[in-house]
From TrEMBL:
The keyword Transit peptide does not apply. This is Glycoside hydrolase family 76 protein. It comes from Marasmius tenuissimus. PANTHER family: MEIOTICALLY UP-REGULATED GENE 191 PROTEIN. Residues 1-22 form the signal peptide. Keywords: Membrane, Signal, Transmembrane, Transmembrane helix. The chain crosses the membrane at residues 432-457. Residues 531-540, 573-582 have a biased composition (Polar residues). It holds the Pfam family Glyco_hydro_76. Residues 494-540, 556-582 are annotated as: Disordered. The keyword Nucleotide-binding does not apply. InterPro entries: 6-hairpin_glycosidase_sf (IPR008928), Glyco_hydro_76 (IPR005198), MUG_Protein (IPR053169).
Length: 582
């Protein structure tokens, strides 16, 4: 009996220490306006107006698309946004339009193959999203057709072995620094160009991942994992920056690391993580965490208030890079609704961008459906006439991403992202939260032990009946009639912030790579972010110290069987350790 309660005293501070040490995303203190105060209905109206404006920019009077070589990629991204709008709002507003638009796009560039491989792939991604939104098989056909265009310019082991690379008349290294170059996607279809880049490889990664998600065909998951490997082996430097590309005739990396490189791999990995088997999921997820961290903490790409500032120089036909970061983060938010500091971090970051775009980039009066750059500060004078298809699509990325966002209920602490303690050397670096946790835990232990000893002394001099009466008055009524096991279960649940029932992760796919992906679906308006387990409600009003003292008293009142293992709550996160994340 004594041993069990002593164990409870010792494990509690230990538990605080370990959880504080797990990695937690802490929102940037410079962030302002992280909450979105616009109603969901208004967000939908704002996004629809902006979409209609963008469409008006590219169609002629007879509804024909005004294609040029330089707007082929942006138009593919706009198609994605039209489908995404309907997915998010469960409507078919743009279905007929898209059924009409895709054949026009295929006619302009047969097979959707543009000289920029990623611009063709933007049509594959869009068509897959349209297939997901409307379940019309025509969209899947276009998606696969456009995907094959990208696949033709993606390096495969067999090609590298024979040295004959499809569409290229230049020597391509089969390895750089001893690692195979398979999985890289060329930037363009020019025979003499050996440049494989993040835009091409990242776009193919996304196209394959979303097709894998939509069709459950394992071929796509396999290609996606190859693209991911190329990214990690060849386009990532030792600091963890995503490089722009590599000239594979001599394994020469190009200088520069742009937000789009990070955003593309973020979006691809978010989808790939959600369709992957358990054995790869953890690796992909920790990659994702690192990329989010590196992107959002990059001070060159953000204003002091955390607003994306990488789009200051708008040049015609150059892709604005902010949209890729927003899309990547939205893909994480939409596909994984496990409550975590990462989710809160993403939500707040997107909130900052949304509010910035509305106040700084949006036109005024009758131009309120028009968006320009930059997002960081208002234009003087307002220049809605400077809006282009690209600035409009750039803003649409966040107007759409904001639709499913739900603010967290106030006062709910977020669990850290890695429930298990980090491995290796990380473990020795304690931050202040761990120290505060340990000190508080230690003090609590001393206090409780003192109370316990005093109480033991008192107990001997009083009748059993009196103690029970005292117990019943001091216990919160929810606990009064619970058995010891139930009490532990409740406490466990409280500390776990949601408990096993609150775990919103989907069941793992059965086979590696291939996959029963049925458990996964996109979570749009039914987002369960704010869903709280009602059984938690009484407990959340009780402080941990109260619980510990109640626990103590309960332990004294009931015989604890000597052989029973102590309750297992060591790996869960106490609410006190990471309140700072919200
Ligand atoms: C983000 O990066 C910083 C600096 O490298 C690191 O200290 C922190 O633990 C990282 N955060 C997460 C959640 O990975
Ligand atoms: C490949 O390039 C060489 C010169 O670099 C040229 O002589 C040859 O005709 C090219 N072959 C093709 C099929 O384009
Ligand atoms: C899976 O996709 C690949 C590539 O598009 C295709 O060749 C193959 O036939 C598909 N397999 C099935 C079972 O649909
Ligand atoms: C979802 O997020 C949680 C915590 O943020 C993480 O542990 C889990 O691996 C993620 N799952 C997927 C499939 O992304
Ligand atoms: C945008 O402007 C139009 C025309 O001036 C107006 O009817 C509409 O209410 C405005 N929308 C918003 C959301 O302010
Ligand atoms: C908007 O266009 C005007 C006239 O074409 C130009 O002078 C001004 O610099 C532009 N503003 C921005 C922010 O590009």
């Amino acid at each position: 009996m004594l041993a069990a309660s002593a164990l409870a005293y010792i494990t509690f501070p230990l538990m605080v220490l370990m959880a504080a040490n797990a990695q937690t995303f802490v929102p940037n203190p410079g962030w302002r306006n992280t909450n979105i105060d616009v109603s969901t209905k208004d967000r939908i109206d704002i996004a629809r107006d902006a979409l209609n404006k963008a469409i008006a920019m590219i169609v002629d009077d007879s509804n024909g698309l005004k294609f040029e070589d330089g707007n082929y990629g942006p138009i593919g991204r706009l198609f994605s946004q039209m489908a995404q709008f309907d997915m998010l709002t469960k409507q078919t507003v743009y279905k007929e339009r898209l059924l009409d638009f895709f054949p026009q796009a295929e006619k302009f560039r047969p097979g959707f193959v543009h000289s920029s491989i990623n611009w063709g792939l933007s049509h594959s991604i869009a068509a897959t999203q349209a297939f997901t939104a409307y379940s019309d098989p025509s969209f899947l056909e276009w998606a696969e057709q456009a995907w094959r265009g990208g696949e033709a310019y993606t390096l495969k082991e067999e090609e590298l072995k024979t040295g004959r690379i499809n569409g290229k008349n230049v020597t391509i290294r089969s390895e750089c620094e001893g690692v195979s170059t398979a999985g890289g996607t060329f930037w363009n279809n020019k025979p003499e160009d050996p440049f494989v880049n993040a835009l091409g490889t990242g776009s193919f990664l996304i196209a394959s991942s979303v097709l894998s998600e939509a069709t459950k065909n394992s071929t796509y998951a396999l290609f996606a994992s190859k693209s991911r490997d190329f990214y990690y082996n060849h386009l990532r430097n030792t600091r963890g920056d995503m490089l722009d590309g590599k000239h594979l005739n001599e394994c020469q990396p190009s200088a520069g690391a742009y937000p789009a490189n990070f955003g593309l791999v973020m979006e691809g990995l978010a989808v790939l993580t959600s369709v992957s088997g358990q054995e790869n999921r953890n690796t992909y997820f920790s990659d994702l965490v690192e990329i989010v961290n590196r992107t959002v903490s990059n001070t060159e790409w953000h204003s002091q208030q955390g607003i994306l500032s990488a789009d200051l120089t708008a040049r015609p036909f150059v892709e604005l890079v902010g949209q890729y970061v927003v899309r990547g983060l939205a893909a994480i938010y939409d596909r994984n609704n496990t409550r975590s500091s990462l989710r809160t971090f993403v939500r707040q970051y997107l909130g900052v961008q949304y509010n910035a775009v509305r106040s700084n980039a949006r036109g005024q009066g009758s131009s309120n459906d028009t968006y320009t750059v930059p997002w960081t500060s208002p234009q003087q004078p307002p220049s809605s006439q400077n809006a282009t298809l690209e600035t409009q699509i750039n803003a649409l990325s966040i107007l759409l991403a904001a639709i499913p966002i739900q603010n967290d209920p106030p006062g709910e602490p977020e669990p850290s992202i890695t429930p298990e303690p980090p491995k290796g050397t990380n473990r020795t670096t304690l931050d202040w939260r761990a120290i505060v946790g340990a000190v508080i835990g230690g003090l609590a232990t001393v206090c409780l032990l003192t109370v316990f000893v005093l109480w033991l002394v008192r107990r001997r001099s009083r009748s059993r009946h009196f103690v029970n009466a005292l117990d019943a008055t001091l216990l919160p009524t929810e606990f009064a009639n619970q058995s010891q096991t139930e009490l532990f279960a409740s406490i466990n649940k409280h500390l776990h912030l949601g408990g096993p029932d609150g775990e919103k992760d989907r069941p793992p796919p059965s086979e590696s790579g291939s996959g029963d992906l049925s458990g996964w679906s996109l979570t749009y308006l039914e987002d369960t972010d704010t869903g709280t387990d009602s059984s938690q409600a009484p407990l959340s009003m009780v402080s941990t110290a109260e619980i510990m003292s109640v626990l103590n008293r309960r332990l004294q009142g009931v015989e604890w069987p000597e052989d029973d293992p102590p309750p297992d709550y060591v790996s869960h996160n106490p609410p006190s350790s990471n309140r700072s994340t919200e």
